[in-house]
Design goal:
With 245 residues, the protein is an alpha/beta fold. It contains six helices and eleven strands. It binds zinc ion.
């Protein structure tokens, strides 16, 4: 077993990890777009194309719908990936909207191209409930099952437990964190730590920065609103990402 990283390696966007199970089987976890600072000095082809071999990829597992985790999906389809795209139920419901939006904003307004991409997506998309094992269809004798667990990041977000059981060996568990949320979010269940793991691949989007507490953030918003009301000002709320407005 081997894990290759095709994104979120030198920065924090473009998440795309390949779990190589054996010479005939691998799974991809996320297929995100590079954004912000990571795009400077690089051409579109370099950023968007799927430059790695996908011939052994048997499934794409999606942790959540943010563009830096799913934005290269159309390019993966264009590269010929025809396997299942597996996500939680909420992510599967959101994903077509996110991809349609991403295509319109970043690629094309051509309705027939957008429609073709979305119909491929809906054919390949499989929704799996949280906390339920799902067995992957692989080549040969090796057995692999996956389970989504709540990650508390955005609607539908999950960390993924992957159990790999080669024929003659004991199984090992690899956990892909995706993006993790904080506890006590008003709308999302708090994430619970995985029961066990042999290997953990963990995202660290904010590095060593501490977020402001929820109460302090509410206070600073209140201050801004009170000031705007008192001097007849205008408050602009940037809507840049799902679940962040
Ligand atoms: Zn995210």
């Amino acid at each position: 077993m081997e894990i290759l990283h095709h994104g979120a390696v030198n920065g924090v966007t473009g998440s795309c990890h390949q779990l190589v199970i054996d010479s005939s089987n691998s799974v991809l976890v996320d297929c995100g777009l590079f954004q912000g600072a990571e795009t400077s000095g690089r051409g579109d082809d370099d950023l968007l194309s799927i430059e790695f071999d996908i011939s052994t990829v048997q499934a794409l597992l999606v942790t959540h719908c943010h563009i830096d985790h799913v934005g290269r999906l159309p390019y993966l389809l264009a590269a010929g990936f025809s396997g299942p795209i597996i996500a939680t139920e909420a992510t599967a419901a959101l994903l077509p909207m996110v991809i349609e939006d991403a295509l319109k904003v970043g690629v094309t307004r051509n309705q027939s191209i957008i429609k073709a991409c979305l119909s491929r997506l809906s054919e390949q998309l499989i929704a799996v409930p949280y906390k339920r094992w799902f067995v992957l269809d692989l080549v040969g004798e090796v057995k692999t099952k996956i389970k989504f667990q709540p990650a508390g990041h955005i609607l539908g977000s999950a960390y993924i437990e992957v159990d790999v059981k080669p024929v003659t060996e004991v199984s090992s568990r690899v956990v892909f964190s995706g993006d993790l949320g904080a506890n006590y979010s008003p709308l999302l269940a708090s994430p619970k730590s995985p029961y066990k793991a042999d290997i953990v691949v963990i995202e660290s989007t904010y590095g060593d920065k501490d977020h402001q507490g929820r109460r302090e953030r509410a206070k600073s918003l209140e201050k801004v609103l009170i000031k705007a009301i008192s001097d007849n000002g205008v408050v602009i709320t940037p809507a840049f990402s799902i679940g962040r407005t």
